[in-house]
Each structure stands twice: as C-alpha cells, then as structure tokens.
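Appendix B: complex inputs.
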Amino acid sequence: MESGPMSVDSAALDPPPVPDNGPDEPKHGGHSRFELELEFVQALANPQYLNYLASRKFLVNPSFVAYLNYLQYWTRPPYLKYLTFPTATLKMLELLQQEKFRHDIISPDLAHALIMEGMKTAVEWHREG
Amino acid sequence: METNLDGCFERVEKTLGSMIDSLAKNNPSQKLAEELLAAEAELSKSLKLLETHQNNNARLQQLRQETSLHDTQLKDIMSSLWNMRRELKAVPTTSNPPAGPKHQFTTSELLAYARRISRNTLPLPGVTNGVDMTPSQSSAPPTEPEDSFRLQSQPTQTQTPTTSFNLSFNGTVTTPIGLSAPTPTTTTNDTQPSTQLPPSQQPPPKTAPADDKLPAHLKPAVNPLHDAAFHPWPTEGQIRSGALAALQRLVDAGIEPRGYDPAEQERRRAAEEKARREAEKRARVEREEAERKGREERERMAREREAARLRNGGGPDGDGERRESVAVARPKPKQFTFLGADDDDDDEDEDD
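Resulting structure:
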C-alpha cells in the first residue's frame, strides 16, 4: 500500500517557527501552545461559539482580528493535518478574515442559519447524484 | 558589346550610304539592297542583345539592392539577438525556487488522516440531521412537529443500507404518549377499504397487520439514533470540557495559567502528602518508641523502689538532694514523687 512520497505545495505565508526549547516550552495550565491553538481554531468552526465571541465584542478587537489572521497558519502544512474538523474549520477561518462576516455573525439568525446549513451539508455532500 | 554595336551601325551606315549613292546615280543595285537588309537585320539582332543586356543589368542591380537590404535586416536581427541575450544574462536570477518548500507525505499518512477525520466529516448511517434524504417524496407526515434533529423515515423501495436501516425504525416518532394506544397505526388503516371497522372496533392487536411492531411512542426508545445529530464542528459540550475552558477556570480562580501545570501541581501535592504521611508515621513510631522506653524505665524504677523498700524496711527519709531533672523525667503524680524521694537517692547511688 505504501507508495512513493507525495507532496503538497505550501502557500506564501509561513507557519510560526517551532519552539526551539523543546520540552522546556512554557505550558499554560498544563497545555502547550500547539494544543491550545489547535483547540481554539477548531472551536471557531462552531457558529454558536462565534456568535458568543461576537456578543462579547471579541471580533471587533483589532488584536483579536490580528490573531485570527495569524491563526491562518493552520490552513497550511505541516499544521493542516492536525485539524480533525477540517471542513468547517477552514471555511470559518476564511470567513473570519472578512470584516463583514465578523460584524454579521453577532446575529443569532446568521448563526442559526450557519448551523442548519452546515448540518445539512454534512449529510449531503457525500450523497451520490 | 559596344564595339559590336558600333560595327553594326557603321555597316548599316556604309551600306545605306552606298545605297543612297547608287540611288542618286540612278543605278540601284540589288546587291547593295540585300547588304543593307542584312546589315539592318544584324543591327536589330544586336539591339535585341543590348536590350537583354540592359535587362540583365537592371536585374542585377535589383538583386544587389535586395541583397543589401537583406544584409541590413540580418544585421539588425543579429544585433537585436545579441541585445536580447545581454538583457537575459543581465536579469538577476533568484536562488529560491518560487514554488516554495514541498511537504512530503505518504499514502499511509494520508489514510491515517482520512481515518482520523472521518468521524467528524461523515455522519453515521441513519443520522440525517433532519434532512430529507429523498427529496422527491414527501415522506414526512404533515402532522409531525418541526424537529430539525429528528430522524425521518424513508419509505422507498430502493434499499440501500442506509435506507433499509431507517426503514426498520419507520414510524411516527413524535406521537404523544398519552394518545397512543396499542392499536395498529392509523396510516395503515387509511389505505384499507372503507368496509374496515373503525379503529375502536378492530379485533385485538395480534390480528392487525402491524401487530408485530412496537407501538409508535416506544419506537424512539429503541432507536439508538433517535435525536442523534451529526455536528461537523466541535459541540458546545466539547468546547466547555476543553483545555481553554480549563484555563478560564484557572483564571477565574485567580491562578496565572502560564507556567501552571495542574498535573505537575497534582504530582507535587501528592509528593507533599506522601512526605507528610511518612513524617507522621515516623513521628508516631518515634513517639511509640519513646513511650515504650519511658514505660520500661518506670517499670524498672518501680521494681527497684519496691526492692529498696523491702530491703530497707521503710528506709530513712530523703536528704533533700533530689535532683529536679529526675523529677521532671518522671511523669508520675507529685505525691508519689514526694513519697519516693528517698528512693530516688538510692537509685542515683546505684546508678553511679
């Protein structure tokens, strides 16, 4: 089954450098930065969570917007392969770069529509025909 | 060419002059006339030749012009080529390939990733999130309330594994419990001829067509996928039980999460607890040891006092030189100490 190595091109934006202090990397509550950011970037896939963040005025904070931009390194190797909810995570990360979406997601109607659409798509995308 | 032509002209002139002379003398000669003809023919021939010559010459001139024109063009092309080459060589080349670094992966890694994400990207068979998987048919009864996460039946004859799975759970899952009686489903009755008895006069359920089925209100109870929903993103519960929520709890508790490791703290606490317990155990052992020694000492002294009293028959009273330390080391009541003051001296004497 093992075939020759394949490869995928990486985009222009480079991921952050790997912490060079290895096991001495500072932990946050027992978790590494990798674990926390992986969890967070996937939590962003949940429209309800985004609605919550918007209601707490996070999405209009310039620092937070810059952080969202920084989180885009998850869309590229070598970090891409750690996403376990790739579809919604990548789409939401892309949408979150748009100011209009960050502004509109505060509406519960939009969050609800995203939930409905996402769950509908999740069962429909693999249907034949 | 010119001499030839000149010769021809001279000959024509000479013959013409001879002809004119002969005509002037009124003595035309046929021979002269023939010569004139021949000379004229030769002149014409020479003139033709001259014409060809001139044409050739013109053609040569034209060709030369073309050659020089082409030479110029060639030179231009060569020079532009040289310029191009110089410009090409002057373009600075980048050492980094523009495609960027390639990330290698193998088939097994790809398959492992597919397996890892499959439970989050593909719903279980039967979980439809309330989406009607057979859009061409109106399978949902209109009386059912809206429930986006409800499973829907699929009364279709093309049985895929998914649809057959759903068929086994076919039924109105939201029938209120209070209204349900162990009677056959009304949908079955609606299709029967009108001679059928009303449901209240039906025979016992065991003769009904659907008697081997569970009552409708019980079907959700045996359907493990009832109200099951597939979420293509982390659910709120997962987020709330995640590491970020744990950090928030730490912050709420006033603990700086950076550098704080609950596992490490737990280990440290366990180690401290263990050390404390060991210290307590050690202290207890030491205390017991000390008590045991003290008890033995008291017993020994009691025995010696007894022996001394027996020996002395009451004995003299103490001389007042009893040392305080001895009294302190002796945890006896004071009256005994006082009564046995003389014994102490005896003891010390013996000890010495």
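Chain B touches chain A through 50 residues (CB under 8 Å).
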